[in-house]
Design brief:
The protein contains six helices and seven strands. It has 191 residues and is an alpha+beta fold. The strands form two sheets. A five-stranded mixed sheet has the order 2-4-5-7-6, sandwiched between helices. Strands 1-3 form a two-stranded antiparallel ribbon.
Length: 191
Amino acid sequence: GHFAANEPPHLDVLVANVTSPVIQNTHADADHLSRMLDAAMVRRFVEHGYLVRVPASTHSWYLHSISSRYRYCRPWTRVFLERLGREFHAKFGGRLRVTSLVRTVESQISLGHRNGNAANAFGPLRSSHLTGATLDISKHSMTAREQQWMRNVLYSLRKRGYVYAIEELQQPTFHIMVYRNYLSYVASVTR
């Protein structure tokens, strides 16, 4: 086989490919998620509760190099981060390093100038970060065991249709778009 005895056969499932952005954008449209054009739109969405603030530091995660203007995400994405962070901290004692949350078309374009791997700001291949439903979690300081645990959790949630998760190869990052239906999953397991 292609896999060593200790490697699960789903390793390649979290690998990005050309259809990844299309899948994420199709989901964003199905969930009726607006894309953030600029900082003013982010502020408006925060005022209406469509985006929520993410604390820069908690006992189970910290935001790394995210400007205070972009420390927001969709409510269900924050619930996901809170639950994942709690489980990660309980199991390993460490904190998740979050490197990206909401982006605007404006910030995505400027990121594209600095980073050749950055997704488009427009069209069917545009970044799902524009919706506020997506976050990136760095593998930078994770042990092999921690990374494997993350892969298993993300694979399981992706298989059941609650997230779209990929490992970016250019950056050591888990890119995770959390679907709106994640809240119904949480309700079902916390009854």
